[in-house]
Specification:
- About 15% of the residues lie in helices and about 35% in strands.
- The chain is mainly beta.
- It has a single domain (about 5-175), classed as Aromatic compound dioxygenase (Protocatechuate 3,4-Dioxygenase, subunit A, Sandwich), CATH 2.60.130.10.
Amino acid sequence: MSYPGTRLAVLTAVACLLIAPAGSAAQLLLAQAESASGDSGKPRLVDFWRPGDSGQRMNIRGRVTSLDGTPLAGIPISIRQANGDGEYTDRYRATLLSDDQGRYQFGSVLPGNYTGARHVHVGVYTEGYAYFDTSILFKDDPNQQSHYGHGTAIFLEESTVGGETILFGQFDIVLTPM
């Protein structure tokens, strides 16, 4: 059985693996593409978090739509952030793909303070749409106003899952057709 966007997702994943260093976060993309056909009612979680990571665990999800609200499937979303100690490593970088309903989600840690506010870089470059480049900021960060660039602040809601406290947030991406 074929699922819309799965072929593109697998081809993109293979291309990323061919140019990425061994063991990099690009392997997460392949795992997401291979299981994109699951029908759990939510997008596949690509998780940077590993047991023992410093920092508060978080999960961000959202939708990619056009200006008119149409969900956009198979859109590559570049995510990059510092780890819980404020250091950038390849382990906290990946390209996600929106599912057939435009949804995506990733798990990570609340980034440590690298410079200015805690933030996650988000970029989308896809044919037919204007380049989207911003940062996810966090409403309770006292350094939010000192962020060096543009960004959108989101609330993180605390929840206990399996005895562990996880922060959950929503960040939607609206692309402008060219």
